[in-house]
């Protein structure tokens, strides 16, 4: 059990570090990172669109809007995913102390919420980044989703963490 505790603890710290490093990117850097996913999707949309445009400016404006929306989905989705992963490892780490599922879930959600708040506070001090309560909610929603799946797995047979 101690080996699992150490491994899960290392995983928690690793995910927190990844979140911190992404949050440490300034706006331009974070846009370049999300463009790794957004640009290929945008190119597929451009190649497969049947929409006709009267002017080049109209076409450019149309695809700028798509790019902007895709960027938001990708960035917020990444936040949710990272916090879902964080929640799983926090839960497993807490379970390694033989904490029951209910208390492990509540502690997991609390720890993830605190870290989401810390993450937003950290972004306040990063150049060209801002702090938003909605981002904390998005992060916490990722944690809630993972806890829901853990709860569902527990109800469907066995508990997560053995």
Query: Quick one: overall form?
Result: elongated
Largest sheet: none
Distance between the first and last residues' Cα:
10 Å
| Helix/strand class | mainly alpha
Strand content: under 5%
User: In oligomeric terms, what are we looking at?
Assistant: single chain
* Low-confidence parts: none
Mean pLDDT across all amino acids: 91
Please tally the β strands and state the result. 0
The residue fraction in helices comes out at over 70%
Q: Cα-atom Rg, whole angstroms?
A: 19 Å
List keywords for this structure.
162 residues, mainly alpha, 81% helix, elongated
Mind explaining what this structure looks like?
By secondary structure, the protein is an all-alpha fold. It contains five helices and no strands. Helix 3 crosses helix 5 and helix 4 runs antiparallel to helix 5. The longest helix is centred in the middle third of the chain and has 40 residues. It is elongated and about 65 Å long.
